[in-house]
Specification:
This protein has four helices and no strands. With 80 residues, the protein is mainly alpha-helical. The protein has one domain. α2 packs antiparallel against α3.
Length: 80
Amino acid sequence: MAVDVLNYISKDKLERMKYEDALLAEIDYQSDLDDVAREADEKARFEMAREMLLDGEPLNKIVKYTKLSAEEVEQLQKGK
C-alpha cells in the first residue's frame, strides 16, 4: 500500500488525473456488479417464495427461508 501511495504522489498532475479516473471507473464497475448481484438475489428470493406459496407452505416458513417481509410475501400471494 505504501508503495502505491509513493507511486501515486510521484506522478505528475496529468498522470494522477488519469490514475484517479481509472480508479473511479473501477469503483463504478464494481458497484454495477454489486447491483446486478443484489437484483439477482432478490429475484431468486421472490421466485423461491412463489414456489413455496404454490406448494402451500405457511407464511412464517416462507418469510424465514426467503428473508422477504411478510408484506412482500402477502403481495405475491395476492398476485397469484
